[in-house]
Amino acid sequence: MIIEILYSELVKLLKSKASLEQVIENLDMLGTPVDGFEGDLLRVEVFPNRVDMLSPEGLARALNGFMESQSGYPIWRTEPTNIEVDVKSTSRPNVSFSVVKGATLDEESLKALMQMQEKLHATVGRNRRKFSIGVYDLDKIKPPFVYKELKLKDILFRPLEEESDMTGKEVLESTEKGQKYAHLVTDTAPVIMDSQSRILSMVPILNAEFCKITKDTKNFLIDSTGTAEGTENIVSIIASTLADRGGVIGVIFPGPTFLPKRVSAPLEYINKIVGLNLNESEYMILLSKMRLGYDGDVLIPPYRLDIFNKMDIAEEIAIAYGYNKFEGELSPSYSPGEPLVSSLLDNELRKLVVGMGFLELKTFMLTSPEILKLAGGHKIAAVNSKSLEYSALRPSILPGIFDVLKFNKDADYPQKVFEIGPVFSPEEGHNISGMIVHKTANFSEIKGVVDRLIGTISQSVEWKNGEHEFFMKGRTAVSDVGVYGEVNLSISEKLGVPMTAFELDLNKLKLQERIL
């Protein structure tokens, strides 16, 4: 997803001087390439695994580590609080809170915070269905707080950017957000209320106007509610963003403790996976560049939602080391590949038939039982097939070729096509089939093609007059290796043009002895 930030805002948060070119290069190395730059506006592509980088603060935090101007595990000032939250049973049972005091925002950083909130809603929040986020001016509300479910008719508050109080039902019917997210609630909705029974938020729809944050807000209450576990991670992302603006994080229960998650990632494993030969000191330096700590285990900051196990640590090390420093090499192979004999045989046949002016087709082995009736029906069918059009294995290639020609009957004539492929009758075989279509197509022409093909292979075949469902009686030659002749009028009249065809069993022709 693309975020838009002011380059001047990003530079303020960097701990060392860097040119625009250096910033762009390092963002690219971190996997967040710059999509565009116009004036002071920087467009950065952030992938869903790094939602902590959806703000200037998150980007700067990662850049400071990567450029080693402020590396290592991030340290924020935290303190306990006496704020209590009474959590009742609701339709969104997972909930987390935190406060941040003393953060300094301006108009641009406020816009960036709102952008981050909406991007989180759209991505990890699954459009608020899984997670939703609320941020409030702590100085305008009075703890303790209550989180509970109310009937829509009992909800009454002034929603954000509205002029008057509304009931829950009116919010859903009359506001843009209410209409967009009405499907997330029923005849009840969760609410967050303060000690004066004022509704701070109708979750997950809208916050109240009276406690909205502005550029003058210094102290913040943050919440995340959801239908899945992980709300504490969402709160951690917002809280760490505000902490990077000079705020002090206050811990509330329920909510994140802001303690690191631990992952065991032995150095030997990392070296094996990444293909390096790092010592422990070098390992720690690279971890530090990615803002990860180390005390025997790797310490993961609470805002990193994308790190689960040691394989993820290996990826972080590769990024910190620099993908551009790895030298590409082919993996050793102890069994050099070579073409299958059957593939070599098919290729030689292709050369022969293409040399006679034919164009190769590739049709499906599974096809419609109805089309296969043209050549006598099928022997094997799929059980519980989801589509009748692909439910039978072909015993002959001819019906499939005819089906292609039928759908291309407006094409210019003559048409000469062939296919080499497997058939099932019911044993698997390997056939070549061809078809000629034009106004004067006749038995002599198709006989010449088959004779030339057989003659090139240098095999004697005895042909005799015979019958086949696909071919016209009296105009059909059969043998133990195949059949050719003029196509039955009941079939060719569907194209309105005379047709001739052949089909040969390649296994019976013993090509390996004769071509290779």
How would you sum up this structure, described in words?
The chain has about 525 residues and is an alpha+beta fold. It folds into four domains: about 1-65, Phenylalanyl-tRNA Synthetase, Chain B, domain 1 (2-Layer Sandwich); about 80-255, 3-Layer(bba) Sandwich (Phenylalanyl-tRNA Synthetase, Chain B, domain 3); about 260-325, 2-Layer Sandwich (Phenylalanyl-tRNA Synthetase, Chain B, domain 1); about 340-510, Bira Bifunctional Protein, Domain 2 (BirA Bifunctional Protein, domain 2, 2-Layer Sandwich), CATH 3.30.930.10. The protein has 16 helices and 28 strands. The chain has a seven-stranded mixed β-sheet with strand order 19-23-24-28-27-26-25, with helices on both faces. Strands 4-15-6-14-7 form a five-stranded mixed β-sheet, covered by helices on one side.
Nutshell version of this structure?
With 516 residues, the chain is an alpha+beta fold. The chain is 29% helix and 25% strand. The chain contains 16 helices and 28 strands.
Radius of gyration: 36 Å
- How much of the sequence lies in strands comes to 25-35%
Number of strands: 28
Largest sheet: 7 strands, mixed
Spatial order of the strands forming the largest sheet: 19-23-24-28-27-26-25
For CATH, the homologous superfamily of the largest domain is named as Phenylalanyl-trna Synthetase, Chain B, domain 3
Per CATH, what is the topology of the largest domain? Phenylalanyl-tRNA Synthetase, Chain B, domain 3
Mean pLDDT: 93
Number of domains: 4
Indicate the CATH class of the largest domain: Alpha Beta
Give start-end ranges of low-pLDDT stretches.
Answer: none
CATH architecture of the largest domain: 3-Layer(bba) Sandwich
User: End-to-end span in angstroms?
Assistant: 56 Å
Q: What does the overall shape look like?
A: elongated
Kindly name the structural category.
alpha+beta
Helix content: 25-40%
Number of DSSP helices?
A: 16
